Amino acid sequence: MTALLDEARAGRGRSIVLRGEPGIGKTALLDHLAENAQGCTVVRAVGVEFESELALASLSELIGPLSPVLGELPAYYADVLTLLVPQKPADSARTPPASADRHAIYAATLALLTAAAARRPLLCLIDDAHWIDDASAAALLFTARRLLADSVLIVFATREVPPFEAPGIETLRLEGLSEQAGLELLARSGNVSPLAGARLAALTMGNPLALIELARVLTLESADSLSDLVEPLPTTKLLQRAFAASLVTMSDRQRQALLVCAAAGSADLEVVARALGALGLDLVALDEGTVSGLVQITGRTVTYRHPLIRSAVYSQAGPGERWKVHAALADACTSPKDADRRAWHLACATVGPDEQVAVALVETADRARRRGGIVAQATALERAAELTGAARPRAERMCAAATIWSAAGALDHSEALLDQAETLAGNDIAARIQVLGERAYHAVLRGRTGDVFDVLVAEAAGAGPQDRLAAGRILSLAMNAPLARWDVAATLEVCEKVMALTAPDGHPDPGFPKGAVRMALARVLAGQAAGAELARECVAVCERHVPNGACAELAEVLTYVEEYALARRMVERDVAGARAVGDIALLGYGLRRRAQLEIRLGRPLMAYSDALECAGIADAMAQPTTIAASRATLALVTAVLGRADDCAAHAEEALRLCPDDDLETGVRVRYALGLVALAGGRAADAVDELRRADAAMRAVVEPAVVPVAADLAEALVRTGRPAEARRVLDRLDAGVATTGRRGRRAAALRCRALLARGAAAGPLFAAALEAHDDVDEPLERARTLLCQGQWLRRSRRRKDASVPLAAALATFETADSALWAQQARHELTVLGLRTLPSAEHPGLGVLTPQEWRIAWAAAQGRTSREIAAEVLLSVRTVDYHLGNVYRKLGVSSRRALIRQLGGSAELPA
After folding, report:
1. Which residues belong to the signal peptide in this entry (predicted)?
2. Is 15 in the same domain as 151?
């Protein structure tokens, strides 16, 4: 273990989980590390069983001593952490934010620990990690996984049960002592015979604490004194038996005083003293416990020698005595900082419904929300619901708890609460609408939107007369079911009902612009000109709202109708807004749509950076449908870049996670696979994939949503099936005639030229290029130039062919579309023109995805600090990765990196 500490001192960040049964020596190892941490800052936190509902309690305990470092952090991170770290008078001018997204707290924790480590190596010790609150665990594990070039060592000590999941972090399991080592440990006590010692060592399986405690409380003059212990017992039971035995001789006053300490957790000694006083006791009642070594008073806290002593004390008490003690502790928690403790003590002291206690827990849940403690928030709301008497507010609180549990990833538990809430709601329409809204969201997450479609439509119809806006919001979620199947008629029907409820005048409702945005999408899919008009009208309304996804959703519609400048303005607003407040879900949503826009604009490298970040966010959120959508985007980006193997891998992952009825994601994946096959000269494979995508989209009139048709037609031409190609093009031409999409018109003309015979192709290629002039889609234009050059070469117009082929190659190389560039280069080679060997973009083949994101951000002119905030790493780790990037790419400066990656940053003079 000290070797890990040496590595941290040397600037190599490490983290490790010590696992083992109670008493195996985990705490002793942590103490040993702390004693040997010369020259390091040491911070500690201990999980407490009765405090696991207090959001970020353990993290606050750990980082409290690091408060002097807050001034070195970016202002937003420092502000976020003031929610956790008590401010000194000198810092009182800093105002904590009203709330903080949990992922912002994770990033701020990483920033604080690495900033502290820049001063002195940092050792973070977290004991009883299985009992730290979920929000603290998530923040610390987030940081632990990102340590690389920082002088930080994080050590978690945990039991196997209850579980403490720490995927991706090194684990060391501690085993019991050998029989000889156990006998040597017992020999130090001086009252254990060799025979009894051997028996005890076998019974405890070498657990050092069990050996010591049992030797202390049992009379072990011979092996006969252990006759009731006939086989090895679980260590927890052995220790609880030993600890319980030490309570037998205590007076009732002493036991009650110890029970107060057990129930108080890590509360301040002043709180304990007040609770003791309310029970007719005082701190003197703890003397016997301190003398026997069960508890110790250090400064302003009372701690147990071992957590199992606390458990033994609490379990030995009867329920009535526990209620009495919790009530006393609740009354003793008078400080505002102890409001959450007070609420939970009241909850533990309450048996039946109690609205005052329920309200206190709702307030606790709101404080947890503002601190990013999502599990603590859900737990408090659920308990509040249990203590609520009236059916409607109980249903509302139960549903609210279910909503938060679903956000925490506990969908099964959330749905169980929704079942209860729906039963409680009965015929109360408002309550039922709330429940059904959450069920609809679950259906989206699970990819089973069809399961709730009919119910949502029926319930919204019943609720409409009472609350039109609420009914419209719920009903708008129903569009996800037909949209996932590309059922345009049903999508349009739902959206028309939503507009009738929320915007009967046909204009975007300022309170719910998403209704109009979705109506615009439905109309665009149906090929109605009013769709584009409504989308443009939504711009100003969406911009008046705080970033909430409406702008990104609208950007997707604007992309389809070739309003690329407006689309960029919209999506940038949500992406920038999400970064400003640390809203990771909104950020992922926006990045995916921005990547799709960048593809249309011929900037796949920018799209690749966005898609990688989006995929990382989806993985962090751990929602399969979100991961599938992000992988589908990565598949398309890598298809355009010509990275066939990567495209196939991303597509496989997307299809694995994508529900069978989610045809929308399936179509995007098949399109990506078909596109990369066509670019790679595998026209037959392209036909197979593109046919499947095209068949699923027959109901979509708008040809620019997923532009499959032209690529399928080209693949059919190249496989010798002109009649089939013409049928596909006839449908494409009809869509273009209806919608007027200039880019799709150019692509259709290109394919008509491929079908033409002899000189008839020339005017068609010319018309296609003229159409390309009207829309900013450089890769599509380059593909037309490539096809024109191929036709000219086959027509033996070699000199004429070189011009469009060279222009196509230049565009493909600028965009790093490797497979298309390979085709253009091959044609020029056939013409006898010398070209440089084919090579993919520097970095794409040699850099890891993490390194690529950092290198690309640096090439756009971002500083290491800005990159660190974007990729959620420390500044030192960013610089470490940049060092690897320089080495792999053979450059020595950011100036050279900008040149090699073709970044947008201005080169220094």
Report:
1. none
2. yes
Prior bond of 162 cis (ω within 30°): yes
The pLDDT of residue 905 = 56
For residues 58 and 195, membership in a common domain is answered with no
Compute the chain's Rg from CA coordinates.
33
* Structural contact between residues 520 and 492, judged by C-beta atoms closer than 8 angstroms: no
From 348, 367, 396, the end of a domain falls on 348
Domain count, the chain: 5
Q: Which residues of 141-170 are buried (b: 16+ CB within 10 A; e: fewer)?
A: bbbbebbbbbbbbbbbbbbeeeebebeebe
Hey, which residues does 16 pair with through a beta bridge? Answer: 155, 170
Q: What DSSP designation does 847 have? A: S
pTM over 0.70: yes
Residues 6+ apart with CB under 8 A from 686: 674, 675, 677, 678, 711, 712, 715
Whether residue 22 is found in the same domain as residue 145: yes
**Does some domain include residue 72?**
yes
Residues of the chain with pLDDT under 50: 89-92, 219-227, 229-230, 233, 907-909
Amino acid residing at 477: L
Q: Is 85 found in the same domain as 9? A: yes
157 phi/psi in degrees, rounded to 5 = -115, 130
Residue 57 placed within a domain: yes
The first and second tokens of residue 504, run together, are 């009967």
Q: Among 520, 528, 612, 633, which residue's Cα sits nearest to residue 567?
A: 520
- Does residue 158 sit in the same domain as residue 87? yes
pLDDT, position 310: 82
Q: What is the pLDDT of residue 85?
A: 75
d(CA 428, CA 422): 10
What is the C-alpha to C-alpha distance for residues 588 and 130, in angstroms, rounded to an integer? Answer: 30
Which of 5, 3, 8 has the alpha carbon at shortest distance from 149?
Answer: 8
Q: Which residue in 20, 301, 292 sits closest to 159, CA to CA?
A: 20
Phi, psi of 613 (to 5 degrees): -65, -40
pLDDT number for residue 268? 87
Q: Which of 792, 857, 862 is nearest to 824 (CA)?
A: 792
189-211, pLDDT tens digit by residue?
A: 666 677 777 777 777 777 888 77
Do 213 and 95 lie in a common domain? Answer: no
pLDDT of residue 632: 97
End-to-end Cα separation, the chain, in angstroms: 50
Which of 204, 228, 245 is a domain's end point?
A: 245
Q: Do 574 and 549 touch, CB atoms closer than 8 A?
A: yes
Asked if 344 and 357 sit in the same domain, the reply is: no
Report which residue type is found at 56.
Answer: L
Q: Are 254 and 246 in contact (CB under 8 A)?
A: no
For residues 130 and 461, give the distance between their C-alpha atoms in angstroms, rounded to a whole number.
48
For 384-438, how does the pLDDT look when each residue is reduced to its tens digit (9 = 90+)? Answer: 999 999 999 999 999 999 988 887 767 889 999 999 999 998 888 778 878 887 8
DSSP string for residues in 217-229:
HS--SSGGGGTT-
* Domain annotation covers residue 637: no
User: What's 886's domain CATH number?
Assistant: 1.10.10.10
pLDDT of residue 23: 85
Q: Where are the alpha helices (DSSP H) in 426-487?
A: 429-446, 453-463, 468-478, 480-484
| Residue spans of alpha helices (H) in 265-306 | 269-278, 287-291
Q: Which domain holds residue 145?
A: 2-173
What does the pLDDT read at residue 224? 44
Both tokens of 191, joined, read 């009252």
Do 223 and 183 share a structural domain?
yes
Degrees (nearest 5) of the Cα angle 664, 648, 658?
Answer: 35
Distance of alpha carbon 286 from alpha carbon 760, whole angstroms: 101
- If you search the block for the tokens 């994101």, which residue do you land on? 853
Per the domain annotation, does 297 fall within a domain? yes
Residue type, 656: R
Cβ distance 257 to 232 under 8 Å? no
